[in-house]
């Protein structure tokens, strides 16, 4: 098994790890992991839970999360009530 075969399999449609291992069930695990390891830097995961399949994309998968709103809440020092 080669990484090119696995690459073609994943390019057909996004594939979960379960589908990948099922496809290469008869292959020795070191060969499967080696092929996947060669592809992993170019793979990303789609946001479709619960399986989050792997896929290739022409853009970066690094989504920068929005920063949490700044909250200055301190239970020991509540804000004074303005009336």
| Count of extended strands | 2
**Poorly predicted ranges (pLDDT <50, ≥5 residues)?**
none
Strand content: 5-15%
Compute the number of helices: 3
Order of helices and strands: HHHEE
In the sheet with the most strands, the strands line up as 1-2
First CA to last CA: what distance? 74 Å
How would you portray this structure in words?
This protein has 83 residues and is mainly alpha-helical. The chain has helices at 3-12, 17-23, 29-39, and strands at residues 43-45, 54-56. It starts with a helix and ends in a 27-residue tail after the last strand. The longest helix is centred in the middle third of the chain and has 11 residues, at 29-39. It has a two-stranded antiparallel sheet.
Keywords:
single chain; 83 residues; mainly alpha; two-stranded antiparallel sheet; 3 helices; 2 strands
Secondary structure layout plus pairing:
Elements: H1 3-12, H2 17-23, H3 29-39, E1 43-45, E2 54-56
Helix pairs in contact: 1-3
Provide a quick synopsis of the model:
By secondary structure, the protein is mainly α. The protein contains three helices and two strands.
